[in-house]
């Protein structure tokens, strides 16, 4: 054996002893293997059928080592190794030895190793130490609302035994929808149509009744939609487990950090409570609503002079501003939220008497950078499709036109104007007054308007500007504050193994998945990608020179389940893999 001391086969011979020790300690391990053969190559008749059980995965690795040893013996390749080969030998020996010395998962074993990953993966310095009590999952989903439950359902539909965990910062499912103003409703209509083919536009699974059936409302309120999600989480089951049983409530994720893991991804998910768990893959489904965007220039002079639309707890302040004090409400932002707020205040103030609006100051002034129809300066154009992600929806357009006719001068829309400053002062009567300055893009004229209530900011949401978003540090952002993702599977470009689902997904300038009927078309895509990687890792019997992987019999069964699930989503119009189809609006056929 001395001739083999420094040869690659020595690593496998050493591992033979390690495997024997492992089986001596627990002889049931050997009986769990469907096939145990040592022959000259990894051909199809030497199939191993391990499960996703990490211990069996380690044994599978050792058996593959024996096959390599057998091949080397047959070839008679006993030449001395080069320096590079010797280094590889040590790496292989270290990897194989560590795999049978721990009863923990491969993830936990690698977690305890020295952290030598590069900075681009944001592996923090303290990520190298691991508490052996940390739970480990194949997939952790951050957020238990529409996108979180939707992608969880896709994963479990294709792999009911998959070990997943859903982390929800609040005490209930769909909490962001419960935070909606009571007057706000879905602009995408819900309708009962499942028996006839298409799903309810706001439905998140292809095989359940949608929110219209649940709430009997074509345009559900936030509370009604949250109730639909809660019912779904309690009734939808996988292997007799409800979706709700996978959720940990009141769990706020503070950070996600990469861990060293050979050849693949692994992460530590830390919570505000100080607890942490580990996962092979992470899906961010936390949405945008808890990350409101308030432009710093507008907050700089007087932080309390304005309030974001999503943070208003008492809308009565604004209706009273008009009804009791005959004041004006100022709104910055001409998208769906801005017009929704404006129309609510106008309606609450009551119908104007004929001619009353002529000599009165406006009840609502809405400052809009676009055309007054929720459109940006660069939207529209010949041959361009009106995407409701960038323009007002038909139902809102109709409401705005009706309000303009009804309220006339009481509803003032400042089109093509940019708000530049917001402040406050005390009036001659001793009342606090809130001021907003805006500049016209056409005339460059600066105008100041006043309000008896804080200025409403309907300026959208931005994860990149949020101090509490756990993607910060592991994700790059585009100019609009959206995560930079791969187009093929919505994976964070900067950190392999982290995926994003929900309204913040965007590709190029034309493909924006901000509505439920849009972003649900990526649930099965993300689920299929993650499951395919797990199957390739745990059921691999051969890696070809081109990088493709040959899997065992059990792996083929699992892949078939994934493919059937994706086909079902596609048949129901809930899967888009070709982004060009999203531009043209086609979700059938090759898309």
From TrEMBL:
Q: Which Pfam families match?
A: Pyr_redox_3
Entry-linked Gene3D superfamilies: FAD/NAD(P)-binding domain
Extent of Polar residues compositional bias: 200-220
Q: Show the InterPro entries listed in the entry.
A: FAD/NAD-bd_sf (IPR036188)
Q: Where is this region: Disordered?
A: 77-134, 197-221, 371-391
Domain of life, source organism:
Eukaryota
**Compositionally biased, Low complexity: which spans?**
120-131
**Which named protein is this?**
FAD/NAD(P)-binding domain-containing protein
Spell out the Gly residues composition-biased ranges: 371-383
